[in-house]
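Q:
Just now I want nothing more than another pair of eyes on a protein record. Here is the record:
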Amino acid sequence: MVIASIDLKDGHVVQLKNGKDLVLQRDDADALISDFNKFGEVAVIDLDQAFRNTDAKGNTKNTALLKKLLRQGNVRVGGGIRDVKKARELISLGAEKVIVGSAAWNPEPKDGESILNTEFLEELNKAIGKQRVIISVDAINGKIAVKGWTETVDISLIDGAREAEKYCSELLFTCVEKEGCMQGTDMEAVRALRGAVKCRVVAAGGVNSLEQVTELEKMGCDVQLGMALYTGKVSLKDSFINCLNWEKTGELLPVIAQSPAGEVLMMGYANRQAFEKSFESGKLTFYSRSRNTLWTKGETSGHFLELIKMRADCDRDTVLATVIPHGGVCHTGSWTCFGSEPDEKSTLERLYGTISERFANPRPGSYTATLDAKRVREKVMEEAEELCDDAESRDEVIWEAADLLYFVSVLMYKEGVNWKDVYDELDRRHKEK
């Protein structure tokens, strides 16, 4: 599959040729990650960190933007990650994986020494886990490139990769000579690398066509794309569809629809045209085997499934679609096809949505709409006191806790905070430890 790259320099999204010469610059990172994340993982790279263009605190002109992007998709982050503390911080802020480059290598190993910085990598694995570590095996003329691709070390790509996979879940290979040149990548080097290691391999640098993306997928490699996406040479939609395992499944693939909260809603089948229509319309579309035609869920009932993102499984023969349901999903009227309840189950997100709707469209007699900032804070204090001081039985604790959560949700809405923000903070604290 394709991993879209967002490279940051001086606070802008850029694309460089050979890692040096500016080819394009733009300032729509939020829109880019929203679009890119529909199709797969996104790599966010701080080039200024890689080139050590930092202030006294170790920050760059990209730091604030980078942190903002980390929870806007399935993000892996790279660029100048040289210590465990930095890696742990990035994971706590929302990065799913970190990409380690120069810091992974021992540039001048003495007799008997490893070509890798094993002390650092062992500490990194212990701190965040091997599954969260990606090691860059960038190469120039077959030698490992370091220090922002300004130098090489006397370590071959294959030898370096075999050692590096002991400390990571993935290898990111960039053919530096091809980077940003749009002339195609070094397929023989990628093929040799794929044959030398067992871990996941991501190829980057020069990939310039859908055909090459598809060939690399069949080789068992993912592709990280930059220039080809920004110049329109390769489409993420076409890449996603072409990388699915059609040879194994034939004309149809199963698609599982789930809510943002992870609740399984339904399962259907899709052909190439159905996937195209889903991405183009933003509404999940299937292929009806009984009617032999495309059908967009909700086209008659109005209960459509708003597409957030799609992810293929490891075998590329099943797709998971994350959607926002607009009404009951099952034709029976149930909220999901795997249950009989007509309404969405109560969750904090559902409560927050109801509160939002009450303020946006006040109904006669709505208690929620009468709550101003001062009153809701008073109610939070009041309900917290009742929960702590008055609730003695299990039922009383449930009752008072429900009251408290309702008023906390109203307060959050008033302050522009949602439950995802709270979950993200709890997640950050968990990963920080």
Notes: The longest strand covers residues 2-9. The chain has a mean pLDDT of 91.
